[in-house]
Write a structure and sequence with these properties.
- With 94 residues, this protein is an alpha+beta fold.
- The chain has a domain of 56 residues.
- Helix content is 39%, strand content 16%.
- It has three helices and two strands.
- It has a two-stranded parallel sheet with strand order 1-2.
- Helix 1 crosses helix 2 and helix 2 runs antiparallel to helix 3.
- The structure holds S-adenosylmethionine.
- S-adenosylmethionine (SAM) binds next to loops.
- The site of S-adenosylmethionine (SAM) has 7 residues, from loops.
């Protein structure tokens, strides 16, 4: 039987500083989806410029900024994943 360790950390996925480099074998995540309306507020709270762009109907700019927020998460995911580790990312269709 395989034994596993579980540690629950509640926080911002852009800052996983309590997780050492290359220490995670599997990441499974379902991030908020850029330009799916129900996640607009979540992104807007993370970056006020996104909120401003959405209000001005600058959808392309908002989309780009939302992805820049997610890029900060992907940087952390790449850092903590072990060599050969797997990241499973659930993405929305548009
Ligand atoms: C598409 S939903 C996934 C929901 C999850 N699968 C569940 O069943 O509860 C995206 C989730 O990511 C959270 N979230 C958004 N930005 C985050 C961040 N920077 N760090 C951690 N969680 C975040 C949202 O609050 C939301 O709960």
């Amino acid at each position: 039987m395989i034994s596993t360790n579980h540690r629950l950390i509640i926080g911002d996925a852009k800052n996983l500083d309590r997780v050492p480099d290359e220490s995670v074998d599997l990441v499974v995540t379902s991030p908020p989806y850029p330009m799916i309306e129900m996640w607009d507020e979540t992104f807007g709270l993370q970056n006020r410029e996104i909120e401003r762009m959405l209000r001005k109907n600058e959808d392309g700019k908002a989309f780009e900024l939302m992805h820049r927020e997610l890029d900060l998460v992907w940087n952390e995911v790449a850092r903590v994943l072990s060599r050969g580790g797997i990241a499973c990312i659930n993405i929305g269709e548009r």
